Amino acid sequence: MTTGSKFPVKRPRAKSGSTSGRPKFRRRADARPDEILDAALAVFTEKGFDAARVDDIAMRAGISKGAVYLYFNSKDALLRGLIEREVAPAAHRLRALAEAGGDDPKSTLTLLVTAATQLLSDPRMFATPKLVLSVAPRFKEIAQFYRERVIDETIGAIASLHRRGVENGAFRDIDSDAVARMVIGPILVHAMRKHVLGAKDAAPPDLRAKAHLQILFEGIAA
Amino acid sequence: MTTGSKFPVKRPRAKSGSTSGRPKFRRRADARPDEILDAALAVFTEKGFDAARVDDIAMRAGISKGAVYLYFNSKDALLRGLIEREVAPAAHRLRALAEAGGDDPKSTLTLLVTAATQLLSDPRMFATPKLVLSVAPRFKEIAQFYRERVIDETIGAIASLHRRGVENGAFRDIDSDAVARMVIGPILVHAMRKHVLGAKDAAPPDLRAKAHLQILFEGIAA
Amino acid sequence: MTTGSKFPVKRPRAKSGSTSGRPKFRRRADARPDEILDAALAVFTEKGFDAARVDDIAMRAGISKGAVYLYFNSKDALLRGLIEREVAPAAHRLRALAEAGGDDPKSTLTLLVTAATQLLSDPRMFATPKLVLSVAPRFKEIAQFYRERVIDETIGAIASLHRRGVENGAFRDIDSDAVARMVIGPILVHAMRKHVLGAKDAAPPDLRAKAHLQILFEGIAA
Amino acid sequence: MTTGSKFPVKRPRAKSGSTSGRPKFRRRADARPDEILDAALAVFTEKGFDAARVDDIAMRAGISKGAVYLYFNSKDALLRGLIEREVAPAAHRLRALAEAGGDDPKSTLTLLVTAATQLLSDPRMFATPKLVLSVAPRFKEIAQFYRERVIDETIGAIASLHRRGVENGAFRDIDSDAVARMVIGPILVHAMRKHVLGAKDAAPPDLRAKAHLQILFEGIAA
DNA sequence: CATGAATGAGACTTCATTCAT
DNA sequence: TATGAATGAAGTCTCATTCAT
Does strand E come within 7 Å of the CB of B47? Predict the structure, then answer.
């Protein structure tokens, strides 16, 4: 799962277990690809995939344009490598969230919503989703990859949390996917307004999370 | 306010008062701008703004590349003209939704959610939002324009609907913006999964709307 | 010589002597080509040949772009027609100058220099020469045409004036072409500085002419 | 003042201190800008600014079209860079001419006229003036730049030479600018006839210079 | 490993010219 | 005769990618 790479990336140095010679002093050459991807994420997010020039990325990574091609075969590969790298942390984050509260579904959900609200207030956390959304029409594989590995995983995790709560007697028996959308949706709306459409925050995260949970648990009917 | 055009569009001599009758034989110049914008929306949505070639748009509109420039000064102008044209209908649609159910807030909200769920299942209805999301990082003005005229309007309309319900005694007194996000969010999540990330529908719209409303009104707590 | 047209121009109306029907009231259609050439001269002079758009010319002539092509086959033809038309007046002007002063070579030359200095202070009078200079590298035929019919004619006229003066005993026997260059040169220098390079006038025409003649007749040596 | 560059030119990393010796094998990047400007001068002179294609220039410089843009931002920049580069030599040449003959104004003027006549018989020497004349209507700044730095400098130098002669008792006290025009004018007339309008030489330079000086010093009156 | 000069395909945009009306 | 919508052939400029050093 970690090794199987859907989007192959050039690895200029055989990562052979051999502690070949001395670890040298020279370059933290192993870090290069990551540095480049960091730069790529920044530039792609800022300008969009097409408008970003490989030169920009190289410059932000502090290397020459040619050097980028030592590590990645193409601009597309850069994008794919980036998304691929970002999926693992995203998936990890969401799993951490889903397991946040131990085995009480209700408090777990509370923690999850609070943490997610907090998290997605950070522009860096929303950088990858934003990028994926903007390139999705052209890179169907990336869209699919991201959906399956991040979105559907998240929905699935929340749904299963809900089901546990149902069995538990904590939650009413409703369509779990709908529940998941009720959990994610409001947070997404806010994140999009803010990070994509440039809105300024109104309410602070904790208040938003609180209201969100209140409605989620009890509804809006009097 | 409705007439004031933020993004000016070339209008080649309006051929005054021409309610001329016959659909003409060739040169139905009056329809051209709209035809071009239709084509532009299709191509932009499909490929993204940068990847779309003016040639593609011209071809889809059934005219030559040069002819596009008879009506629009640049590719950017095409985008702006398009967004501008689409904002009015979008705003109108949402207003229609918000006023869907007469003066009973509860049933109004029910109708609104049902209709919105229905509506956003149609790819064409989500085409403009999708496009806006993809160009937002580069065209801040468009992002702002769309947010103010569509998103914030929608949120405001729902929020005020909620406030009426509160005064009415139909709804509990909660943060109205949070309510609005609970109304929009789940629908948006589904639309994005489907239209942007390419997911196949699972539940049909009416079921989704029903579950959505159930949770919205009564919450998920047992 | 007058009829033989080196650069053929479309004549949409057979100029047959027939006073065909009524002279009509309608359009002074016969004037059209001239109006167009007027417009062309203005625009070409202002922007240069390439930068001038046929649309500009049409607009300045108060007609549609298509109408220009009813009278001229191409933009090049417009240029050639224009130059051709301007050559006659230019030649006529210079001949008038050369014959300005009756049969006293000295006073003729005086009048000629005075008049030419005066004349070339007018931007419109220098418009065609300026245009010819700017297109000469590309339109060799025009360059040649203009040189033979205007420049060389002028030089010839002055030279022959000089020769008459020599026979007359009024002038010393020197290279007549050199004399002609001494007559034209200073005037040209001023015209170029002013009309082409945008300099502001310093001395007024009469003073310039006077100094010019003084040197011409007596030299600068003490 | 000499360093202050009115028309900035892209300089791709000066490869510091490289007095490296060998003519290198490929990539003699240091020479590139100059090579390109040489090519540009040739093509612009031949065809005029607009009719010249960047491709032509690149081809004549022996590089690809794209490479031109590594050194110059635009076709305009190419023109400006070219003019700027040519102004210094032109100014230098004229200064050298003005100081040609030591401190005897009369012989200085004689040398100056002889040299200038000689010089402007060379097409390459007239290439830049010719170019400037052809683009002047569209590039007012270039026209002004050239006038101030070359034309007016020349006129000024000759005028001051004349004034020295006046003080000296060598020349009569006449309008010095008029004198300057009498010096330059005839040479310019010949150069234009030849290099711009394509005339064939008649008299050889030395004869022309001689006649020019004779008239200049003694006038044409018997 | 790294550089950066160089290429070449292609995009947007302009405009002379045509043609149906 | 006149219009103006439409075309299509360029032309300028950009940038991903390559390659000699």
Answer: no
Nucleotide lying nearest to A61, CA to C1' measure: E2
Kindly report the number of other CB atoms within 10 A of residue B134's CB atom: 25
CA of B25 to C1' of F4 (A): 16
Choose the closest CB to A219 out of B134, B169, B216: B216
Cβ <8 Å between D174 and C202: no
Residue-wise pLDDT tens digits, A177-212: 999 999 999 999 999 999 999 999 889 999 999 999
B6 touches strand E (CB under 7 A): no
CATH fold of B32-71: Arc Repressor Mutant, subunit A (1.10.10)
For the ranges C11-20, C26-35, C44-53, C79-88, the lowest mean pLDDT is seen at C11-20
- Residue spans per domain, chain D: 32-71, 78-218
Which fold does the domain C27-72 belong to in CATH?
A: Arc Repressor Mutant, subunit A (1.10.10)
**CB contact set of A131 (below 8 Å; sequence gap of 6+):** A41, A44, A45, A49, A82, A83
Fold of B79-218: Tetracycline Repressor; domain 2 (1.10.357)
* CATH architecture type of domain C83-218: Orthogonal Bundle (1.10)
User: Are the beta carbons of D133 and D73 closer than 8 angstroms?
Assistant: no
Question: Which residue has the least CA–C1' distance to nucleotide F2?
Answer: C67
Residue type, C111: L
Provide mean pLDDT across the span B120-145: 93
Whether CATH 1.10.357.10 fits A82-218: yes
Scanning every residue of chain B, which has its alpha carbon at the shortest distance from the alpha carbon of A145?
Answer: B197
| H, E, C per residue of B107-174 | HHHHHHHHHHHHHCCCHHHHHHHHHHHHHCCCCHHHHHHHHHHHHHHHHHHHHHHHHHHHHHCCECCC
Q: Please give, rounded to a whole number of angstroms, the shortest distance from the CA of C10 to a CA of chain D.
A: 26
